[in-house]
Amino acid sequence: MPTYTKFQRGFSLVEMISYIAILVLMLGIITNTIIAVVHSGRAIKSLKNVETSAIISMERLTRELRQAESVNVSSSVLDSNPGRLILEGKDDAGAPRTVEFYLLDNQLFYKENGIDIGTLSQSDTRVTNLVFRLFPGLDSMGVRTEMTIESGTSTHYRSENYYLSALIR
């Protein structure tokens, strides 16, 4: 029968419990780190969605306002939410051109000459406030736009207000 020395017997109960405790501690730290990374990713995604929608919407509004010749005041909805802005002008060939911005199902839409071009806000964002206000400029009329864009869920929610002022040429 073989004889076992102190180094050949295996692990004691205390050593085994110590190893399991260290393993559980390491798994807890790894799990918390993974959860924090996922939460941060969702928060960053909400912020990115809001900012991307704002950039696209504001750039298009600015471009169209600067190219327009006038605002159709009788058909536009000004100074209230949800606003509707109808701009009139001419295209490059000199033909009449009408551009419309409006909210539908919390999405900012763009229409040109009566044809829906599509949404300017991303599908996973909501435009909850859209107000257009006219103001006089030195030689022309201007439009101030107020917009609130939201994205995310209750735990990773982001809401930002955006303001734009542009003069009509």
What are the defining features of this structure?
alpha+beta, three-stranded antiparallel β-sheet, 1 helix, 33% helix, 169 residues, five-stranded antiparallel β-sheet
Present the secondary structure layout.
Layout: H1 13-67, E1 70-71, E2 84-90, E3 96-104, E4 107-112, E5 115-119, E6 125-136, E7 141-151, E8 158-167
Antiparallel strand pairs: 1-2, 2-3, 3-4, 4-5, 6-7, 7-8
Number of helical regions: 1
Strand order of the largest sheet: 1-2-3-4-5
Question: Largest beta sheet, briefly?
Answer: 5 strands, antiparallel
Give me the oligomer status. single chain
Tally of separate domains: 1
What general outline do the C-alpha atoms trace? rod-shaped
The span between the termini is: 103 Å
The level of helicity is: 25-40%
Run of helices and strands: HEEEEEEEE
Can you count the beta strands?
Answer: 8
Question: Unreliable segments (pLDDT under 50, ≥5 consecutive)?
Answer: none
Strand content: 35-45%
**Radius of gyration computed on alpha carbons:** 29 Å
Structural class label: alpha+beta
Whole-number mean pLDDT: 87
